[in-house]
Write a structure and sequence with these properties.
9 helices; five-stranded mixed beta sheet; two-stranded antiparallel sheet; 264 residues; alpha+beta; 2 domains; 7 strands; Heat Shock Protein 90; single chain; elongated; 62% helix; binds adenosine-5'-triphosphate; binds magnesium ion; disordered C terminus
Length: 264
């Protein structure tokens, strides 16, 4: 009697376990699909912003310059037109930054290393955080597109977290491209993640935020890992993605192209 009951209980338990594993796998698939859709949507939004509002503002800017020429003899009107010109320049800059942050064209054109340099430079300017970057040039060797996007999103989210949560005035980004893997490490010298919060981040729910869970899922999809270390001296995020022989591609020498395209 007791044995039969025990048997039924352990059977129910293992059924529950496999149901939970199934649900976890489904949830993981759904998250990965959502992240892909989010990337596509960001890319589309970036292009639309650039091609519609960005172009309208560029046209406005041309008309304003013509107007400025024609108002040379009318100082009162000229001052107003100059004000309009300043606003339109600012709007162009804002739309361009917004569009590039949604999906930097550099990422598609010349790859992760250049896009990362550009992003870090802009981030340092906007946040006032001093970021030391060690990102060797890829020498024209491109990573697979999904790896480049995932690494870029990890960089973006980690630095955003540094700005929002760490209180650090200094951070560093280190990127290494080996034959069989790429490693991206973002470190800050801030207050660190409280231990109880860190435990949550390591658990299945990844805490309350979406950022960490998203980074972890992106790595998971590429068979990579995301390691978080944190103490009272700061936090480090280390993303490692294995590379397989088939994934490499050479797209010519992008050498100085980085400087040519770099916005801001
Ligand atoms: N560099 C950091 N320094 C200190 N605390 C951090 C750092 N990065 C993350 N955290 C802590 O870990 C938590 C989870 O980060 P996560 O990115 O998942 O969420 P979030 O930034 O709060 O919200 P979001 O969903 O907008 O990203 C943060 O709320 C913060 O408490
Ligand atoms: Mg976050």
């Amino acid at each position: 009697m007791w044995i039969a009951k025990h048997f039924r209980l352990s059977q129910a338990y293992s059924e529950l376990e496999s149901l939970a594993a199934e649900r976890t796998a489904e949830l993981q698939k759904l998250t990965q699909r959502l992240l892909k859709l989010q990337d596509q949507e960001r890319r589309k939004l970036a292009r639309d912003l650039h091609d519609t509002t960005g172009q309208t503002l560029a046209a406005l800017n041309i008309s304003v310059s013509v107007l400025q020429e024609q108002c040379k003899e009318m100082p009162a009107i000229l001052a107003m037109v100059a004000e309009v010109a300043r606003h339109s320049e600012q709007a162009i800059e804002e739309i361009r930054t917004m569009s590039y942050l949604l999906h930097p064209p550099l990422l598609d054109e010349v790859g992760f290393a250049c896009a990362a340099e550009w992003y870090i430079e802009g981030f340092a300017k906007r946040s006032g955080i001093d970021v030391r970057a060690e990102i060797p040039s890829s020498k024209g060797r491109r990573l697979p597109r999904d790896v480049e996007i995932a690494l870029f999103r990890v960089l973006q989210e980690s630095l955003t977290n540094v700005h929002r949560h760490s209180g650090a005035s200094e951070a560093s980004v280190h990127f290494q491209q080996k034959a069989d893997a790429v490693i991206l490490e973002i470190r800050d010298f801030g207050k660190g993640i409280p231990p109880e919060h860190l435990r949550l981040l390591h658990g299945p729910s990844a805490g309350s935020g979406v950022g960490f869970a998203g980074m972890r899922e992106r790595m998971h999809e590429l068979n990579g890992t995301l390691q978080v270390k944190s103490d009272a001296f700061g936090t480090s995020m280390r993303a490692t993605v294995p590379l397989y022989a088939m994934q490499h591609s050479v797209v010519g020498n992008s050498g100085d192209v980085c400087a040519m395209f770099a916005p801001d």
